[in-house]
Amino acid sequence: MLIPPTPEHVVWLDGDYVPWREATMHVTAHHYGVGVFEGLRAYPPPRGLAVFRLRDHTDRLFRSAHILNMAIPFERDQLDEAQQEVLRRNRLESAYLRPFVFCDGVTGLSLHRHALSTHVIILAVGWQSAYPAGTPTARGLSLRTSSLTRHHPNSVFTKAKANGNYMNSIMALQEARACGADDALLLDAQGFVAEASGANIFIVRDGAVATPPTTSALEGITRATIWTIAESEGLLVTERPLTRDEVYCADEVFLTGTAAEVTPVTQVDGRAIGAGTPGPIASRLKARYADHVHGRCDDPHQWLTNVSHRAET
């Protein structure tokens, strides 16, 4: 969970490091949801603070911007270094990073973007990783199938981690919570399982792992990580269409995401999944993922970027 920033907190804004409270935009800043963003975690492994899959997230940020036809006015290396420097300046031991790119709106309020400037902000806030026993994340989540359909790939571009795309997620999550569930299960336009409100979904059946194609779901970096880890553990992983009733009958269900990491699902639409408790494969992958992000095992894929904790002047 996020730890609120202090008054001394620093934000990277268009190349400058500014105090949190001064990182503001004019009230006419563009409000049509045109923007892209990323979410990353920095962990305190034994060898020092490290960002997990930093360049992979930066690459996806640039892909998202390209899809929306937005030119990011900085290079990848600049943004990678700025994310590390924000961690240093805020002296964070464990953190959540959010770089985002958006248009201002001081030249007008129309849909046209030709006269608008593009801005980049990087936020870094503290993160508390421990979840007390009995919380949904610790015991396993309950999902409710949403009445809302996940985006059709020709209505909005689902390969972009775009600001406006998350209106669908916000409304689905709101509906699920109103029904007493922890999160929403969204189906695509054909009625197949897509993802949760902000995480990818996997099922386990007869020891094999399956996940839906990313036609309507985001190409999750944690999703790809878990796929790699699962195969290294000798598990068969496939990408194929999943129906809602197949999820009901799965031995295990779990979600993956930057914040979620690997979170078991123990109930869907009032039906217990498996024994109704976190299953052995999800628990095993959760533990192996934790080993990787905390630097407790070899890093053959170079997923960790170590950050010097010395604050720059």
Oligomer: single chain
Structural class: alpha+beta
Number of helices, counting only DSSP H or I runs of 4 residues or more: 7
Q: Overall mean pLDDT score?
A: 92
| Topology, number of strands | 18
- Provide the low-confidence segments as ranges: none
Q: What is the beta-strand fraction? A: 25-35%
Biggest sheet details: 9 strands, antiparallel
Order of helices and strands: EEEEEEHHEEHEHEEEEHEHEEEHE
Portion in helices: 10-25%
Silhouette: globular
The radius of gyration is 20 Å
The CA-CA distance between the termini, in Å, is 29 Å
Brief description of this entry?
The protein is an alpha+beta fold and 313 residues long.
Descriptive overview:
There is one protein chain. With 313 residues, the protein is α+β, with helices and mostly antiparallel strands. Helices cover 24% and strands 28% of the residues. The strands form two sheets. Strands 1, 2, 3, 4, 5, 6, 7, 8 and 18 form a nine-stranded antiparallel β-sheet that branches. A hairpin with a 2-residue loop joins β12 and β13 (208-211). 39% of the residues are buried. The mean pLDDT is 92.
